[in-house]
Amino acid sequence: MFSIIQAAGWPIWPLLLCSVVALALVLERFASLRTARIAPPKLLDEVLAVSRNSLPAPDVVTKLAQNSVLGQVLASGLHAVISEPRISENALRNVFESQGAAAIHKLERYLNTLGTIAAAAPLLGLLGTVIGMIEIFGSQSPTGGSNPEQLAHGISIALYNTAFGLIVAIPTLMFYRYFRGRVDDYAVELEQASERMVPHLMRFSVRTPLHTAGTPSSF
């Protein structure tokens, strides 16, 4: 491997850096986007069951927020109803939307970097190819002779960098698309869970009585 790096010349070093960063990000995303950490399958049903007859205690809501990303979204709605019993449905939906947007932003962390590496790696390989071609042309002397060693080195730079750029770019692009799909799936799950929680929590909202025209309100 070291001999290949030597033959590929200095243009391969940015590609090696990109490969290390991409590998680290892929491993981090696999660990962070696990279903148990984002949206446990039975969590929503458990929350609905616990709050069927009354709102849970604040410490229970705090533990729910620490459970997962879905738990944070559900806990935000519970906390909103507990802190403001007269909350309107639109205000409660806004709470869920705000917390959901923050959760999705957190899930998308590092994906732009992964996509950038997938797009930049072939260009870095092309840069190595151009530098290799310059070495090849530089091996030709004005008198018609050539330097075989420089010619071979130029060919090595061009071919190795082109190949390594594709080797880095293709898997990185595949993982980027895979993680993007998982984030989209989680976004749908969070949205559906919020839609189920809104009418459930509105049962605990204290309605402000409506007064007919001309009838004074009592204090």
TrEMBL record:
GO terms for cellular component: plasma membrane. The chain crosses the membrane at residues 12-31, 114-137, 157-176. Keywords: Cell membrane, Membrane, Protein transport, Transmembrane, Transmembrane helix, Transport. Its main location: membrane. Signal peptide: none annotated. The keyword rRNA processing does not apply. It comes from the Bacteria. Residues 66-191 form the MotA/TolQ/ExbB proton channel domain. The keyword DNA repair does not apply. Pfam families: MotA_ExbB. It is found in: Cell membrane; Membrane. It is a multi-pass membrane protein. One of its GO terms (biological process) is protein import. Belongs to the exbB/tolQ family. This is Biopolymer transport protein ExbB. It comes from Rivibacter subsaxonicus. The lineage of its organism: Bacteria, Pseudomonadati, Pseudomonadota, Betaproteobacteria, Burkholderiales.
